[in-house]
Design brief:
Layout lengths: L4 E4 L5 E8 L2 E5 L2 E5 L3 E5 L5 E3 L8 E7 L2 H5 L18 E3 L2 H16 L4 H19 L9 H5 L5 H12 L7 H7 L4 H12 L3 H19 L4 H7 L5 H12 L3 H11 L8
Antiparallel strand pairs: 1-6, 2-5, 2-7, 3-4, 3-6, 5-8
Helix pairs in contact: 2-3, 6-7, 9-10
C-alpha cells in the first residue's frame, strides 16, 4: 500500500496481515487499529473501514484477504457465519509465529509463481484455518438465518437493493431512489443503515466495485465501456473511484489478474 483508501465496506469478512515494510494503521468503525508484524487487523462483514497512508512513509506489503462464506463453509459448515456481524470478536489479533510464517509463505508463492493457483489455494486454506481458529469463536458461530432468509429486512430496503444491483448506473440520485421506493430521503437513510449497517451510498459503491472487478477480470470490455455501464460520466472518474477503493488502477488490476488467471484481490 502506497496510497490511502476511502471509507468503504465489504459483504464478507476481511483480514489484513502485514508481510513486509513499514507498520501502518487502519480506521475500522470508530477505532484506529495498528497493523504490525505482531498484530493483524480483522474486519467483520459490512464493517466500514479505511486506510490513511502517511505521505513519505515507505510502502507496506499487505496480504489482504476477502473471504467468501461459501468457500469457508467447505472447511467447516458453521464458518459460513463469517457473512454475519461479530464473526471476529475483536478488530485486532496477535499474530502467532505460525500464522506469520504461513502468511509469508503464501505471499512469496503468489509473487514467485503467479500461475500456480492450486498451491496458492492450498496455502491459503492452511492460513485461513489457523487465523479463524485463533481469532474467532468458531465453535459457537452460527449463520444468521434472519439475514440469510431476508427476515426483518423491510420490503422497501429490499427493493432499493434490487434496483442498485440491477442498474447501478441508473442510481444517480439517492433522493429519487428514496422517492421511487416510497420513502423520504431521511427515512430511507435511517431504515437502510439500521438494516444493512452501512449507508445507501456505501452499499452502492460496493455493488459498483464488485461489478467493476467482474467486468475487468471476466470480459474484454474497454475501461470506457465499463465506466459507462457503472454510471460514471467519464472514464477518469471511474479510474479514480476504483483506485480509491481497491488500491490499484483498473488497468493494473486487469493486467495482474490476466497474469494470474484468477480474481484474487491484489492491492498495490
Amino acid at each position: 500500500m502506497d496510497r490511502s483508501l476511502v471509507r468503504h465496506a465489504h459483504p464478507h469478512c476481511h483480514m489484513l496481515l502485514k508481510v513486509e515494510g513499514a507498520d501502518t494503521q487502519f480506521s475500522v468503525g470508530d477505532r484506529i487499529v495498528a497493523l504490525t508484524d505482531e498484530q493483524a487487523v480483522l474486519i467483520n462483514a459490512w464493517e466500514p473501514h479505511s486506510y490513511a497512508h502517511y505521505v513519505g512513509q515507505p510502502a507496506t506489503i499487505i496480504l489482504a484477504l476477502y473471504i467468501e462464506p461459501d468457500w469457508l463453509g467447505a472447511f467447516r459448515a458453521n464458518w459460513q457465519a463469517s457473512s454475519g456481524p461479530g464473526f471476529f470478536r475483536s478488530n485486532v489479533g496477535t499474530v502467532s509465529p505460525g500464522i506469520r510464517q504461513k502468511a509469508r509463505r503464501l505471499a512469496e508463492a503468489m509473487v514467485g509463481d503467479p500461475g500456480d493457483l492450486a498451491e496458492h489455494e492450498r496455502l491459503l486454506g492452511q492460513l485461513m484455518v489457523a487465523v479463524i481458529e485463533r481469532f474467532t469463536e468458531w465453535q459457537a458461530a452460527l449463520p444468521s438465518l434472519r439475514m440469510a432468509a431476508g427476515f426483518g429486512i423491510d420490503h422497501r430496503v429490499r427493493k432499493a437493493i434490487s434496483i442498485m444491483r440491477t442498474d447501478p448506473a441508473g442510481v444517480d440520485d439517492m433522493t429519487r431512489l428514496a422517492r421511487d421506493i416510497g420513502l423520504s430521503r431521511a427515512h430511507f437513510f435511517r431504515l437502510f443503515e439500521t438494516t444493512m449497517h452501512v449507508s445507501p451510498r456505501v452499499y452502492l459503491n460496493v455493488v459498483r466495485l464488485e461489478q467493476a472487478v467482474n467486468f475487468i477480470v471476466d470480459s474484454d470490455a474497454s475501461l470506457a465501456t465499463i465506466s459507462e455501464r457503472l454510471g460514471f460520466s467519464v472514464p477518469a472518474h471511474f479510474s479514480r473511484f476504483f483506485h480509491d477503493h481497491a488500491g490499484s488502477s483498473p488497468s493494473t488490476y486487469r493486467a495482474v489478474s490476466s497474469l494470474r488467471g484468477c480474481d484474487f484481490e491484489t492491492l498495490g
